[in-house]
Amino acid sequence: MKVEDLICLGNKVIHKDQVKLLLGTILDMNPLEINLHLNDLVPDNLVIKYKDCLNCLKDGEPLQYALKSVNFYGIDYYVDKRVLIPRFETEELVLNVHKYIEKYFKEPSLLDLGTGSGCIGLTLKKLNPTLDVTLSDISKEALEVASINKENLGLSVNIIESDLFMNINKKFDVLVSNPPYVAYDDEIDKKVLENEPHTALFADNNGLEYYERILKDCCKYLNDKYLIALEIGAYQKDRVLELINKYLKDVKIIDKKDLSNRDRMIFIFKNIDLNE
Ligand SMILES: C[S@@+](CC[C@H](N)C(=O)[O-])C[C@H]1O[C@@H](n2cnc3c(N)ncnc32)[C@H](O)[C@@H]1O
Fold first, then answer.
1. 196 CA distance to ligand 1 centroid (A)?
2. N vs C: which end of the chain shows fewer Cβ within 10 Å?
3. pLDDT tens-digit readout, 225-245
4. Which value, to the nearest 10 degrees, does the dihedral of the CA atoms of residues 170, 174, 180, 186 take?
């Protein structure tokens, strides 16, 4: 089939912008260039892949699951229904953690708690190969996906199945987590609710369960000098700050907004001079 035939087929099923995005990914072509290739013949294996993806999208599956791929921080990650699809705001968390590590640590150890696809810990390892990275998650299935990404990227990291700190038996310099934080009565996009793993989304105690558990126990798993980086839900900043003040002493805190101007990240520093 020709590219233009595939476009016609796609337009009957999904929005035309999605058609170009899908075709661009499958043909490894910038979506803006597709119109220059309307008469190109597409190999049969790619036509089959395209039709499979269209069927998934027709059933309401997110594009990233249909493609089994997402670009995070300029890196292609394998994703499927076993893991949360990495989000843009998490790239901002990674950007800041990378910056703080470069500034305040030398060859630190880092724990990515609730790693899912591995996107946080693996990206940081790729950015800074001297990092000693451990990825952990309660979900065996999520860790299978993280292992695929570890292999695909050729990175050397430890992977541990653990209910938060349960099976963690060493101390770290940096703890990063984007834990589940959606409250059970929060309004949530139907596509997310129906497709993404609920263990990656929901948390008790109004979405605060994991922040409280992490902050309560983290000191046993952190060195004297540490950085904790947390992604938070857009309306959770004040309540997470209360938990930090309840469980951690003598720390400095920086909270940051994402590009959409929502409070989305908290960084906690212990024994680090931020004026350095
Ligand atoms: C919001 S997702 C984040 C995934 C990934 N880090 C990201 O940013 O895209 C939360 C992750 O926490 C994991 N998780 C849920 N409960 C957990 C627990 N008790 N201990 C460890 N991980 C847990 C989920 O399986 C899921 O992978």
1. 12
2. C
3. 999 999 999 999 999 999 999
4. 150
